């Protein structure tokens, strides 16, 4: 098994393998070092046998095999899903607050009041908050309870990157924004605002009761969840619900990431399968294309040799016709004047020199080893292929004759028919 195969093993499979045989044997089987195997086990938190484990096995003993410890994700999910309780009490007098809660209290106390007489806070290190200064300590205590309910699980409150953003809870890159706000009521004590046609000015005042909102998006309200204390729901119960909601959010986020990772792995495996399938099909296509070209090349040699035979025969016929014509001219001149003139002799020499290349014999045609049949089965795939002459087209042949089919005649003969 190769190193790549080792990397494809799941945590459970790796655990079973390292306890099935000594690490040196397993590493040699996978083609890696035992140090690399140890690093792999450490990364996945897979326990390995001790140095004397296999010696005790060889001696017939049955040493204890430790169980595979749960993953950090499983540990978090189990801890985060523990019951929070129905209520979480505010810290009593003298109990030191969380440093961030103290900072929130100081910031609220120093902040300017808005039109509703509430101090508003939007700091990079703190949650967004809006409350009267009389409730600054209570807001800080509530934030303290929330922090204590989630920080031990690894859910930390982080500083915002943007200068105008508030801080947020974070675990594994998942953010959750918290907003603590003192609810507003009408000055006459009504809890609901009047319809727009019944009032002209906003006379709402702080109610002395806090509301808590969680949102996974910095801007937008689609994922916002809110809890508010009331006569029926005290703040202790509200805080328990907020802490439970934060825990539940990150448990669900972790499960979602796990599902997404599984889906990505499925897509990767499917993509690799399709790629291998494409490569196999492409290899077949290329092979078929090469075979087609090879067959065409072999057929082209056979076809060209057959055409060369017909062309050579036509050139030979032209050579004989021209030679007979030259001889007839010579005989005619002799019969007329008895002796040839210098001009006639010069012309005859020129004509015979011009006719001589028309004969295929001048090109050493035919050569049985190069111009005849051949065994296509002995030609290497892809060549080299047998030579071919590619005789030029005789002027008396309109087109190249089909392989194995004699020429239909000369151009002059066709014109007279």
Report on this structure.
The chain has twelve helices and seven strands. The chain is of the alpha+beta class and 417 residues long. It folds into three domains: 66 residues, no CATH class; 146 residues, no CATH class; 119 residues.
Number of strand elements = 7
Uncertain residue segments: 1-6, 404-417
Count of DSSP H/I helices: 12
* Average predicted confidence as pLDDT: 88
Span of the ends, CA to CA: 81 Å
Structural domain count: 3
What general outline do the C-alpha atoms trace?
Answer: elongated
Radius of gyration: 49 Å
Task: State the order of secondary-structure elements, H for helix, E for strand.
Answer: HHHHHHHEEHEEEEEHHHH
Major beta sheet summary: 7 strands, mixed
**% residues in beta strands:** 5-15%
Indicate the topology:
Blueprint: H1 3-7, H2 11-18, H3 23-30, H4 34-43, H5 53-58, H6 72-80, H7 99-110, E1 119-121, E2 128-131, H8 136-150, E3 156-158, E4 168-171, E5 174-186, E6 204-215, E7 225-228, H9 235-337, H10 342-355, H11 368-371, H12 411-416
Helix pairs in contact: 3-4, 6-9, 7-8, 8-9, 9-10
Q: What keywords describe this structure?
A:
417 residues; alpha+beta; seven-stranded mixed beta sheet; 7 strands; disordered N terminus; disordered C terminus
What is the structure about, briefly put?
The chain is α+β, with helices and mostly antiparallel strands and 417 residues long. It has helices at 3-7, 11-18, 23-30, 34-43, 53-58, 72-80, 99-110, 136-150, 235-337, 342-355, 368-371, 411-416, and strands spanning 119-121, 128-131, 156-158, 168-171, 174-186, 204-215, 225-228. The chain is elongated and about 150 Å long.
């Amino acid at each position: 098994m190769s190193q790549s195969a080792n990397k494809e093993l799941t945590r459970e499979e790796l655990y079973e393998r390292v306890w099935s045989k000594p690490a040196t044997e397993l590493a040699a089987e996978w083609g890696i070092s035992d140090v690399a195997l140890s690093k792999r086990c450490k990364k996945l938190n897979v326990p390995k046998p001790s140095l004397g484990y296999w010696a005790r096995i060889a001696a017939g003993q049955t040493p204890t095999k430790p169980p595979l410890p749960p993953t950090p994700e499983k540990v978090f999910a189990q801890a985060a899903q523990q019951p929070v309780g129905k209520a979480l009490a505010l810290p009593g007098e003298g109990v030191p607050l969380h440093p961030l809660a103290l900072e929130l209290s100081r910031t609220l106390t120093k902040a300017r009041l808005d039109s509703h007489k509430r101090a508003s806070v939007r700091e990079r290190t703190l949650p967004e908050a809006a409350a009267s200064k009389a409730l600054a300590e209570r807001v800080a205590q509530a934030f303290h309870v929330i922090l204590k309910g989630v920080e031990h699980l690894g859910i930390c409150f982080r500083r915002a990157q943007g200068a105008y953003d508030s801080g947020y809870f974070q675990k594994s890159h998942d953010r959750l924004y918290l907003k603590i706000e003192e609810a507003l009521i009408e000055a006459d004590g009504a809890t609901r605002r009047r319809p727009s046609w019944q009032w002209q000015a906003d006379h709402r005042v702080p109610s002395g009761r806090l509301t808590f909102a969680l949102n996974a998006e910095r801007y937008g309200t689609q994922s916002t969840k809110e809890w508010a204390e009331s006569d029926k729901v005290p703040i202790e119960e509200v805080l328990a619900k907020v802490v439970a909601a934060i825990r539940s959010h990150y448990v669900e986020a972790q499960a979602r990431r796990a599902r997404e990772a599984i889906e990505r792995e499925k897509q990767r495996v499917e993509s690799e399968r399709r790629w291998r399938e494409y490569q196999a099909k492409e290899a077949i296509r290329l092979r078929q294309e090469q075979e087609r070209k090879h067959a065409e090349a072999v057929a082209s040699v056979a076809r060209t040799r057959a055409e060369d035979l017909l062309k050579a025969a036509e050139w030979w016929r032209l050579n004989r016709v021209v030679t007979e014509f030259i001889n007839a001219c010579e005989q005619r001149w002799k019969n007329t004047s008895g002796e040839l003139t210098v001009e006639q002799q010069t012309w005859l020499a020129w004509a015979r020199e011009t006719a001589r290349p028309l004969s295929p014999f001048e090109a050493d045609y035919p050569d049985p080893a190069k111009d005849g049949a051949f065994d296509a089965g002995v030609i290497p795939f892809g060549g080299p292929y047998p030579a071919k002459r590619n005789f030029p087209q005789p002027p008396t042949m309109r087109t190249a004759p089909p392989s194995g089919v004699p020429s239909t005649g000369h151009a002059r003969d066709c014109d007279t028919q």
